[in-house]
Design brief:
Blueprint lengths: L15 E2 L3 E3 L2 E8 L4 E6 H7 L8 H12 L5 H13 L19 E2 L3 E5 L4 H11 L6 H20 L1 H12 L2 H28 L4 E9 L2 E8 L8 H19 L2 H7 L6 H20 L6 H10 L4 H16 L11 H37 L1 H16 L18
Antiparallel strand pairs: 1-3, 2-3, 3-4, 5-6, 6-7, 7-8
Length: 405
């Protein structure tokens, strides 16, 4: 007599499960419910079970595989606890589906800060942009584009002194400076749209496109709901780098036009300043410090969640172990130890270098105009602002995978 094998429960259609990440040395996966717009972390054991709840594989088959993989029996109590948790979260077929997240969150506004949506359907807008600019993902476009960017960077080095002189001229003219600043602000908006279009190309979903302000800063943002659920690290790194590439592509026509203009042309200083400041802006985005794109690119290439805050905790544990306090870092796998230690040292050196240079420049400029006391105070303020970058803070990896500045 043959006993029928009863299929196990199934995860609700549409639930997203990420690849493996490291968080504080522990391997984790992310699970997202797109309807409720909620995400949470699970361990590798829970991931093993979750990804096999397909409505076809039986509990017995899953339990047998679990025992072979982890050397532990998945007993009735563990099954009950796991399935109960999934049911409460509304992740199982047949369980009550969670209330859907509001189709349109209310704009958050106050005199000093807030945000407002620019489009009612960000996904549809991104899809239209993607169809229009789909050619940029082709090799016939990318290879010449990267070659042109390399030529532009070489030209900027070659004509650096002249570009710096043009920038100084623009800084002395408030109207010209406002024109260049406006152009750079627009390029930041294009930068954000670039993130969204590339994420869409790799299967991501853009949830919002809008304007956010925290006076005196006003910026455009593009929220990608499932950024951390893209299929591969390569797709995540490409999405994070897309904004910088857009900034550089926008600058490509500037250098040849600048070269064609005579030295007496009033537009030449504007273009020279736009090129130099635009390249400086792209370099700023490339810094491996949160929340910059360079930081996200590095964290995704390493497969580490909350790299900056995790590295601070790692360094704290390592220092505590040196003086005989705390468990140390032996429980971190080798890859995590290298990633966190390398980032802690590299970011520390980078921050100290930037703070030192900025403080020296501020001290020199302020001293020349207002005297040594004002110069010393200004340099001290620059140091305090720089130190704030290394103080503990909320992880800057982005709410729901948001890519923003």
């Amino acid at each position: 007599m043959t006993t029928a094998v009863v299929a196990g429960p199934a995860i609700r259609a549409g639930i997203q499960v990420s690849g493996r990440y490291l968080r504080d040395g522990a391997p984790v996966h992310l699970v997202r419910d797109p309807i409720a717009d909620r995400s949470f972390e699970i361990g590798v054991k829970e991931h093993f079970v979750l990804t096999r709840l397909d409505g076809v594989t039986s509990r017995e088959e899953i339990a047998t595989g679990y025992a072979a993989e982890f050397g532990r029996v998945l007993g009735p109590g563990a099954w009950q606890q796991l399935l109960g948790l999934l049911a409460v979260r509304g992740l199982l077929e047949g369980c009550p589906t969670p209330e859907p997240a509001a189709a349109k969150r209310p704009d958050r506004r106050n005199p000093l800060g807030g945000s407002v949506r620019l489009v009612s359907d960000a996904a549809a807008t991104t899809d239209r942009l993607h169809r229009f600019f789909e050619f940029v993902f082709r090799g016939w476009f990318l290879i010449p584009a990267f070659a042109a960017i390399a030529a532009m960077l070489a030209g900027a080095v070659r004509y650096g002194p002249e570009l710096a002189a043009d920038t100084a001229t623009v800084f002395a003219d408030p109207v010209a400076l406002m024109a260049v600043a406006t152009a750079l602000w627009v390029s930041v908006g294009l930068h954000e749209l670039g993130h969204g279009v590339v994420a869409h190309h790799f299967g991501g979903t853009v949830g919002e496109i809008g304007i956010r302000w925290q006076l005196p800063v006003v910026i455009m943002y593009c929220r990608i709901d499932d950024y951390l659920f893209l299929r591969s690290r390569r797709h995540q790194v490409a999405t994070a780098s897309a904004g910088i590439l857009v900034n550089l592509l926008v600058l490509l026509p500037v250098l040849p036009v600048w070269l064609l203009l005579s030295a007496q042309d009033p537009a030449r200083p504007l273009l020279g300043a736009l090129l130099l400041l635009g390249l400086a802006q792209a370099a700023l985005f490339l810094l491996p410090l949160p929340p910059m794109d360079g930081y996200k690119m590095l964290a995704h290439s390493l497969g580490v969640l909350h790299l900056a805050s995790g590295s601070r905790r790692y360094a704290g544990r390592a220092l505590a172990a040196v003086i005989g306090r705390g468990p140390g870092t032996a429980d971190y796998p080798r890859h995590a130890r290298l990633a966190h230690l390398g980032y802690a040292l590299g970011a520390g050196v980078l921050v100290v270098s930037i703070v030192t240079v900025v403080a020296a420049v501020v001290h020199r400029l302020i001293t020349a105009h207002f005297g040594p006391v004002a110069g010393a105070v200004s340099a001290g303020l620059a140091v305090l602002i720089g130190v704030s970058f290394v103080l503990p803070r909320k992880p800057a990896d982005g709410r729901r995978g948001e890519v923003q500045k």
